[in-house]
Amino acid sequence: MRASLIQITVDEGESVESRRVRAASLVRQQAGADLVVLPELWTTGAFAYEEFGTEAEPLEGPTYEAMAKAASDAGVWLHAGSIPERDPDGPLYNTSLIFSPSGELVAAYRKIHRFGFDKGEAVLMGAGRDLVTVRLPGTTLGVATCYDLRFPELFRGLVDAGAETLVIPAGWPERRRAHWTLLAQARAVENQAFVLACGTAGTHAGVPQAGHSIVVDPWGEVLAEAGADEEILTVEFDPGKVATTREQFPALKDRVL
Ligand SMILES: NC(=O)CCC(=O)C(=O)O
Predict the structure, then answer these.
(1) For position 89, what pLDDT does the model report?
(2) CATH architecture assigned to 2-254
(3) Structure pTM?
């Protein structure tokens, strides 16, 4: 399976519309990949709290339209990262969109753990409730978003629902880059699953981004890691390694709780 993680730059020097057009073009350039991944809140920036309200879109808004078309033009499964979603009957949500190679929306995931403690996303957005998995030929994706990475019980739930490849779009800051790498490897090892974690480059709202998108295999080996700048991280992996790792080192079977 070939996956491309698009570590796009998110900064104030580019308009949301221009970045949307550029992201769609980058997705189209990945034709031939099986799965393409974009980061969290790449239209606004994950820390650009003041823009969440002004740039929020309905689920089937401009980013949905652009990404559905890009997925079908490229013929790829697309985890299009997340958007600030405006629910007509409720609050904003940090919502990930996943498209099939024909451009159909196959899943939407509203981020469960909101970041910011008593400010930012934690107060501006509502919390999702539902775990989301997506069946692809050869593997089942389990999806989570950025701060979710710190909550291992969410990933256990995804594994119980059949997840073998954990896809985590993020807008992780440089300040806590060591946590990002460590937690990505931990989630891979403890769940004996692939982890595909895609961050952003650049600086927005004064927060330098870590970049360093990473792909980890079920044994915890780092298969590929990006630098800090905009980059397409492409990796080939064998989804069958999840089953062999779980068979040869059956720690998941020893769960007591
Ligand atoms: N956008 C986020 O969820 C940021 C998470 C983060 O900075 C952290 O967990 O540290």
Answers:
(1) 85
(2) 4-Layer Sandwich (3.60)
(3) 0.98
Domain boundaries, the chain: 2-254
Catalytic, 40? Answer yes
CB of 176 closer than 6 angstroms to any ligand 1 atom: yes
Query: Along the chain (257 residues), what's the average pLDDT of each consecutive run of 10 residues?
Result: 98 96 98 98 97 96 98 98 94 98 98 97 97 98 99 98 99 98 98 99 97 98 98 98 98 96
Q: Please tell me the distance between residue 151's alpha carbon and the centre of ligand 1 in angstroms.
A: 12
CB 164 within 8 A of CB 139: yes
Q: Is the CB of 146 under 6 A from ligand 1?
A: yes
Which pLDDT does position 169 carry in this prediction?
99
Among protein residues, the one whose CA lies closest to atom 10 of ligand 1: 176
pLDDT of residue 90: 81
- Please give the Cα distance from 207 to 10 (Å, whole number): 11
The residue whose CA has the least distance to atom 9 of ligand 1 is 147
Q: Say how many CA atoms lie within 13 Å of 121 toward its Cβ.
A: 27
Instruction: Spell out where 35-171 has E strands.
Output: 35-37, 77-86, 92-99, 105-110, 133-136, 139-143, 165-169
Instruction: Tell me the CA distances in angstroms from 120 to 74, 94, 123, 205, one per residue in order.
Output: 35, 12, 6, 12
Residue 113 Cα to ligand 1 middle (Å): 10
- The reply to whether ligand 1 has any atom less than 6 angstroms from the CB of 173 is yes
Ligand 1 pocket, residue 171 CB under 6 Å = yes
